Amino acid sequence: MAWSGNHPTSEIRLVAASADDRARIELALEHAESHVARMQCSPATQHLKNVLASCRRTLAGWGASPPTGDELDALRDRVMQTLQVARTTSPTLRLRRLA
Predict the structure, then answer these.
(1) Secondary element (H or E) of residue 33
(2) Helix, strand or coil for residue 62?
(3) What is the pLDDT of residue 1?
(4) In which band, very low, low, confident or very high, does the pLDDT at 18 lie, cut at 50, 70 and 90?
(5) In this structure, what is the dihedral angle of CA atoms 18, 23, 27, 33, given to the nearest 10 degrees?
(6) 3-class DSSP state of 6
(7) Measuring CA to CA, how many Å separate 86 from each of 11, 16, 50?
(8) Alpha-carbon distance 57 to 61, whole Å?
(9) Three-state DSSP class for residue 71
(10) Spatial distance between the Cα atoms of 51 and 45, rounded to a whole number of angstroms
């Protein structure tokens, strides 16, 4: 089956939903990376860095072929789990008060 420049409406909605999901996953990755960057060097910290790097590579690979719904759900869950662990184990940043 040859593809033309026109795509059915259902495919257009799928791409739009995927782009929105991708943006949410990227934002969660950025938050998790921020938390992990503040953590002291340890095997657990290195593991979290490796998990986040793997998620980044997976996200970058979606440019070649869009993810299935299951792949999207799995990556979203993995990133959110990692973010939760990073939030609960990273040191808290104190805001400076202006005098």
Answers:
(1) helix 9-37
(2) coil
(3) 41
(4) low
(5) 70
(6) coil
(7) 36, 29, 13
(8) 6
(9) helix
(10) 10
Give the position of tokens 């938050």. Answer: 31
Question: Over the range 67-87, which residues count as b (16 or more CB within 10 Å of their CB) and which as e?
Answer: beeeebeebbebbeebbebbe
pLDDT tens by residue, 51-90: 999 999 998 888 778 888 898 899 999 999 999 998 888 7
pTM of the model: 0.70
Q: Would you state the structure tokens that stand for residue 78, as one six-digit string?
A: 């993995």
C-alpha to C-alpha distances, 73 to 5, 76, 81, 91, 97, nearest whole angstrom: 29, 5, 12, 29, 41
Sign of CA dihedral 92, 22, 76, 60: negative
Q: Is 26 left (phi over 0), alpha (psi -120 to 50) or beta?
A: alpha
